[in-house]
From TrEMBL:
The active site is at 9 (tele-phosphohistidine intermediate), 84 (proton donor/acceptor). It is an enzyme of class 5 (isomerase). Coiled coil: none annotated. One of its GO terms (biological process) is glycolytic process. Substrate binds at residues 8-15, 58, 84-87, 95, 111-112, 155-156. This is phosphoglycerate mutase (2,3-diphosphoglycerate-dependent).
Length: 209
């Protein structure tokens, strides 16, 4: 038996201000660091053997806070395959201003539709196309060998992975929301099959996101 632990990064000033990060490197704010520490508290008692993150600062800083709180000394593997969705022309823009410009239907399509292409950016389907091969080739082998694995990443990369793990349909994935510091834990057997799952919340940012 092994555990796969998924943690979304803590909040940033851009999150608070409603701006799309995409691949922009924005650090955690103080509330985000607090959320990461609270996530660590929620994970106490689970031995972590391996850790993976994207290469983005807000994600690696979240891991650093968790590692410090749990006194982890394991190596960290950073890979761009786990990066947030590239928001292309919308990167850095205020999402609520974009909603006013394009209307609620197009806005919801940009944010949540499975195969919505963004000029200069990615769809969630394309994010899935890089996250899942990485999971199958790298992380699943750790789980099959009995290692408990921590993945810290961004909302869309984790949504893509959860879609795969829970076999969520292309239509229903639009309903999946992950808050800051949210934790999803999956239990795997030695053959790589999921035998259970649960969700934990740390100190969640209550603002509009």
């Amino acid at each position: 038996m092994a555990f796969l632990i998924l943690v979304r990064h803590g909040v940033t000033d851009w999150n608070v201000n409603g701006r799309w990060h995409g691949l922009t490197n924005i650090p955690l704010n103080e509330e985000g660091r607090k959320q990461a520490k609270e996530a660590a508290v929620a994970l106490q008692g689970i031995k972590i053997d391996a850790a993976y993150t994207s290469v983005l600062d807000r994600v690696t800083q979240t891991f650093d806070e968790i590692a410090k709180e749990l006194s982890l000394t394991i190596p960290l593997i950073k890979d761009p395959a786990l990066n947030e969705r590239d928001y292309g022309i919308y990167t850095g823009k205020n999402k609520w201003e974009v909603e006013k410009e394009v209307g609620p239907e197009e806005f919801n399509s940009i944010r949540r539709k499975w195969d919505k292409l963004i000029p200069g950016g990615e769809s969630l389907k394309q994010v899935y196309g890089r996250v899942i091969p990485f999971f199958r080739e790298k992380i699943l082998e750790d789980l099959k060998s009995g290692k408990n694995v921590l993945i810290v990443s961004s909302g869309n990369s984790l949504r893509a992975l959860i879609k795969y793990l829970k076999n969520i349909s292309d239509e229903d994935i639009s309903k999946l929301e992950l808050n800051f510091g949210e934790i999803h834990i999956f239990e795997f057997d030695k053959d790589g099959n999921i035998t259970g799952s649960q969700t934990k919340n740390s100190g969640l940012y209550k603002g509009k996101i």
